[in-house]
Amino acid sequence: MTETPAVTFDADGFRAWLDARNDGGAGGAANNLIANPLLDTAYQPIDGETGFLVETTLHALHRAPGQRAWVYGAGVSDVKVWSTTHPEGGPDGGLAGQVTVDGAVLSLERLTDDDLVPRQHNILPGYEAAAHALDALAGQVDFVARRYRDLSALDDVVDAEVVDEVVERRSA
Fold first, then answer.
1. How far is it, in rounded angstroms, from Cα 24 to Cα 150?
2. How many separate domains does the chain show?
3. Is residue 1 part of a domain?
4. Which of 54, 70, 113, 139 fits as disulfide partner to 93, beta carbons 3.0 to 4.6 Å?
5. Helix (H, G, I), strand (E, B) or coil at 86
6. Other Cβ atoms closer than 10 A to 89
7. Average predicted confidence (pLDDT) for the chain
8. Is 44 part of a structural domain of the chain?
């Protein structure tokens, strides 16, 4: 049986969203690319702001009705992310977050700059860096959701076996 992903990041849907007319009042921007300056500028991994790029892009997608770039699967109601900081202060480019799966709020593994946008990419347009990073985030969300559901199914089996054992002992 093939499971539906917890979250699907669709690069074509993302490009369509970038090109779509922006009616959100973002300074009269013609489209979502122009309305989101981080996406319309060059991205360099040395800036250490990948987490902020993802946080900002995901927030914009959450506010966009009908977008097809970031789509939740059944039982997944939310992904929240926030940039992490370096212990000595300032952004470190990482990202932490959580996802709600079947009503349970689950932590995501911290993703580093390199996890989100591989270092092999020196300079990219912001929207390409965001696409790499959102794809990596979707993979992490899917992994956490699958693991949770696998463990929940195992718990259900174990619980049923314990109940059967208790019933057998009481009836003996």
1. 40
2. 1
3. no
4. 113
5. coil
6. 7
7. 83
8. yes
- Please, what sign has the CA dihedral across residues 49, 56, 79, 145? negative
Q: Give the model's pLDDT for residue 127.
A: 94
The 10s digit of each residue's pLDDT in 5-62 is 999 999 999 999 999 887 665 555 678 888 888 898 888 877 678 888 999 999 999 9
Residue 69 lies in a domain: yes
Q: Domain limits at 35?
A: 7-171
Any bridge partners for residue 81, and if so which?
97
| Local confidence band at 111 (pLDDT 50, 70, 90 cut-offs) | very high
- 3-class secondary structure, 71: strand
Beta bridge partners of 107: 98
How many whole angstroms separate alpha carbon 5 and alpha carbon 74?
Answer: 9
Q: Residue 90 corresponds to which tokens in the numbers above?
A: 């300032």
